[in-house]
Design goal:
The protein is an alpha/beta fold. The chain is built from 6 helices and 7 strands; from the N terminus they run ββααββββαβααα. The protein has helices spanning 30-33, 36-41, 93-108, 135-147, 155-165, 179-205; strands at residues 11-18, 23-28, 44-51, 59-63, 73-76, 79-85, 124-128.
Length: 206
């Protein structure tokens, strides 16, 4: 059974003032992630693409190669992170754990003050997949649950919040997010607790 296709915003505001730079967090699909004017209007300078089957060329200042067989490379207008998860079965659960720490790192990075890093610290962040309905929902729900447990004491509470703010309708909830991604987020949540406890132990021993 396929859920009806609904019209919803290209990007949706999910949470405010996260991380050391007080970034607002958005979820969107491919149309939102590739609309540089839209990203600029919302102060989004970081894009985290969850999808393996969605590539977006955000390069504007290209490094021209004398070899025409090489793809264009250079700096994007935003800081761009590509995760490559599958929207369904196929991704190891550890990819969700890695995705969590990449998202956390994207929010916390401090840019070197060198010409080869033409990015400012901070800025709002967009997490996207193809439709902004499943992969990105799973990851952001995990992130909100672990980063703001006082607001989202369970993963279910975080998903419910995202469903409302992303305008995901009840008759599509069976796949927003898909069950295997939901379960991957649950397992990643338990692993994060172990990782963070280990980090505290290491600090205490230093």
């Amino acid at each position: 059974m396929d859920a009806p296709v609904y019209t919803r915003p290209a990007i949706s505001l999910i949470a405010r003032e996260l991380g050391p730079h007080s970034a607002d967090l958005y979820i969107g699909g491919s149309d939102g992630a590739r609309d540089l004017d839209l990203l600029k209007r919302h102060g989004i300078s970081i894009v985290v693409n969850c999808a393996i089957n969605l590539d977006i060329n955000l390069v504007r200042e290209e490094e021209v190669s004398i070899n025409d067989d090489l793809c264009a490379s250079g700096y994007a207008a935003v800081r761009y992170y590509k995760l490559g998860m599958i929207d369904g079965d196929g991704s190891p659960d550890t990819m969700m754990l890695g995705a969590y720490y990449i998202l956390d790192g994207a929010l916390r990075q401090t840019m070197p003050k060198r010409a080869t890093y033409p990015f400012a610290d901070g800025g709002n962040i967009l997490v996207n997949c193809r439709g902004g309905r499943s992969r990105s929902v799973s990851l952001v729900a995990l992130f909100l649950h672990k980063q703001q447990p006082h607001l989202f004491p369970t993963l279910d509470a975080a998903v419910a919040h995202i469903r409302e703010h992303r305008e995901l309708r009840p008759d599509e909830w069976f796949e927003t997010p898909k069950p295997m991604l939901y379960e991957a987020a649950r397992r990643a949540s338990a692993w994060i607790d172990l990782v963070e406890a280990s980090r505290l132990e290491v600090k205490a021993d230093v």
